[in-house]
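Write out this protein's structure.
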Amino acid sequence: MAQPKCHRKALSLGRGVLCDYVHYCESGHSATAERLMRVPAVVAARLAALPRPSWAAIMTRAFALAARNHPEMRSAYFSFPWGHIGEYEWPIANVIMVRRVGDEDVLFLAPLHQPESQSLQALDAHLRRYQEAPLESIHAFRQAMRINRLPRLIRRFLWWLSLNVFPNHRVRDFGTFGVTTMSPYGAKTLQVPSLWAALLHYGPISDAGEVSVGLVFDHRIMDGGVVGYTLMEMEQVLQHEIVAELQSMRGAQAA
């Protein structure tokens, strides 16, 4: 019986980015914790808020507020010159988003500095700019495109230097924690490769206001106890601080 032919295709820019990302993800050192959060008050307050912030802004701010007292969440493992942990003074979130480049989708990291200190409205404005502004107008995206077009050997050496040798470059290029989701497509990610000590991911929000929130964490930096406690605190932040802020947005618009 005849067999189908296999046609070789070069890796596109988008596939090359994913290959580099997965290559440096420390899957052997990572574990995932998950918590089912009940946030119907957040759903209701968000619907009434004007302008209505995205769930990415809400989740990023809620996690950053919950993680304030847990320095593990803004730390990183460095392998050079020997294994050690670096702890940053304050966090930078990197929200994974997709932008169209030519005829394909390419992943980019959208940095949000000190999200615990920014309002939901400010965070949402940053995310909208990252999603809608021309790629050339965003410094982080221009830099990523320049690196992604280098030969693989050079590109991966630069990744290695940033992730393992130079703390300032690492926080500039990758931040201190990541955020990703497939909720706009009604799906939930089960296994998420991560570059960070903590990568937040969440699924779609149900009609009852329930959402499954997961945290991929680096076991070299933290144990499961601090992860579980941070997720519990995040749910409390959503139910109180975030609801209050959303309600104030509705009040400000009415005034």
